[in-house]
Amino acid sequence: MDVSVQQPIRTIVSNRKQLWRPQPQRIPQNLIAIKRANDRNAKLASLPGLNMHNMRSLNLQKFKELEQISECYDMLLLTETWLETKKERLYNLNKFTLHSSHRKDRIGGGVCIYVRDGLSVERVASYESKHMSSIWLLLHLTNQPPLIFANIYHPPGLAKKYCEETIEHIIATVAKLLQKHRNAKLFISGDFNILDVSPLLLLLPVEQLVNFSTRGERKLDLVFTDVAEYMKAGCKKEPPISNNDHCAISLQSTQRDSSVKYQTKEKRLVTPESKILLSKDLQNVDWQNLTNETSVDRKVEMLHSTIQALLDRHCPIRKVRVPTGKPLICSPLITKLRNAKKKAYRQGKLIWKFFSSLQKKGNPERAQKTNR
Predict the structure, then answer these.
(1) Is the residue at 83 inside a domain?
(2) How many whole angstroms separate alpha carbon 252 and alpha carbon 208?
(3) What pLDDT digit, counting tens, does each position of 327-347 carry?
(4) Cα gap 166→206, rounded to integer Å
(5) 192, 225, 251 — which closes off a domain?
(6) pLDDT of 146-156, one tens digit each?
(7) What are phi and psi for residue 86, nearest 5 degrees?
(8) Overall domain count for the chain
(9) Could you tell me if 66 and 241 are in contact, meaning their C-beta atoms sit under 8 angstroms apart?
């Protein structure tokens, strides 16, 4: 048969109706929920609280204050730690995991990141450069895009060649990570000194958040991120740790976590005025009936009722909303001390002199050497 010759196709047209076929029933209970892949425009429900600081050598004195500050944050990003591998065990924070990178050829430099236990973090050490102080972490959040964290220290006085290598390293590493995690968000921080960071703003989809001086009148510590709408309003200048000449940077998310449930609790309203009034009323109470009572149980009951009445008068109970399963981290004492330090810092007081006086009081031998 010659296939090159076109043959007519025989068709039959019929008036017979098509057979009716029942449609399958769709039962909602049998449907399976399929998560939609996040894209670059995916929104974040919450971000961890961050604190940045150039330590200028992390020692035990600074570490004690760092322990108090750590209670208020989820991640601590430190530069110029000047640490060695054998000394890391001295600086382990409770309920935190330490990720560090040290200089091996000479003293100085070094970066580290403390991550609160419970956060799912993956360190991508294969992308870190051996010739510069940097740490790259991948933070996995529940039902949210992952976060790429980088903490970098660029020392001053380097040749132009090394400055270009730092910029190329950051851009190349971000490109590789975004190729694997296309929906990831960026967070690049560190002490860049006088490095020209304009290529980062041109080639990466990021915005620089720090709009205040971090050492004297210079802006050396910077933060680059593509989630500026969540963190820009929460980027604040904090007083330095101990006698450092670099200020700290606090970053708190302004986006409320819709997945967090709140519960109502009762709390007494205590003010300095109410304490004074309460102490005066306690002095004016007539305790004669209490001392004349012979039963111990009756005495306890009378004492309890008297104090309870005074507390209700001067320190009434108020209802407050707090997150369930997330207790308040900062104690009242820590909050009071931090606020006092912030006030002194804003007023331009020399905080390092205050810490020096404390050191001399706690160590008389050091005070005698200083006086000599």
Answers:
(1) yes
(2) 15
(3) 444 566 666 777 777 777 776
(4) 17
(5) 251
(6) 999 999 999 98
(7) -70, -15
(8) 3
(9) yes
